Amino acid sequence: MPRLPAEWEPHSAVMLTWPHDETAWRPQLAQIEGLYTELAAAIAAYEPVLIVCRDAAHREQIAARLDAADIPSRQRHLALAPSNDTWTRDHGPLTVLDGDRPLLLDCRFNGWGAKFPAGLDDRITQVLHQAGVFGDIPLRQQDLVLEGGAIDTDGDGTLLAMTRTLVDPKRNPHLTRAAIEARLAELLGTRRVLWIEEGQLSGDDTDGHIDTLARFCAPDTIAYVQCQDPNDTDFPGLAAMERELQGLRQASGAPYRLVPLPCPAPVLGQDGQRLAASYANFLIINGAVLVPVYRDPADQTALARIADLFPGREVRPLDCRRLIEQGGSLHCATMQLPTAVRLPGTHRA
């Protein structure tokens, strides 16, 4: 029986897809590469980072950046695959475990319901696997459109998901919710799906990925975005989501411990439109939690609450104002690989 491990379980690496001048990052490439270098260094302080480079020349440029940042060669693995964009959470592999044996699942990615070109991103995992990046770990390609940011797991058979990011005529047009639940059970070993219907952040292109809204922090604990300003346009949906979360029950029948995370003040993009700034988009790694911050007074409240949720892990902030310019934050840009996944075939720079 397969099992999708929780993010807090040990990793062998975290995967990133690096920006380049053929992505939407082109107008601000220097700034976003600086942020990605900071992110790679933060991850490498605790575990290796697998970086997807567009081509050999791109790889050499990235290697020079990592050298300048004093990131040790043993902590970085540089692989080649063409890419449309950088949202690794949604185009990277989902790793399930059957006992100690890993299996990589390559689900379809179609640009969040065909909103953006994604043909190259959809093939990244297959390209890496064919190049030997994941060694002899088997890969199974799936026709289910399933973005990693659309689900969150407690590691014990329960998933949290926003219905409209899976049950969607532009993602899985021929599948009902019941059919999708059956596929999730088959692929991920899921025994329960806790479906959420309400809540979305302004500026979010994903239709409400759960990793921007509510996250498991332990099997009995969910952290979630709470809006306390009734005049905020996001308030009605987030308040409705909060009520839904309050009605959820653990497999034992007990309610979940719910921990609210604040909303920062609206962050506006260069076009004046609101961006999807969320503290729930944190990344759990070996020994630490990396938390997106936005130079807002609420940063400190969010950091303190997340620190309480993960005793024994260092909490490290990363300024993600640049990252949310393209609609995602820290968790969206990353995908963890459990310890059973080794990277023997990857180029080391």
From TrEMBL:
InterPro entries: Peptidyl-Arg-deiminase_porph. Keywords: Hydrolase. It comes from the Bacteria. Pfam families: PAD_porph (PF04371). Gene3D superfamilies: L-arginine/glycine Amidinotransferase, Chain A. This is Agmatine deiminase family protein. It comes from Thioalkalicoccus limnaeus.
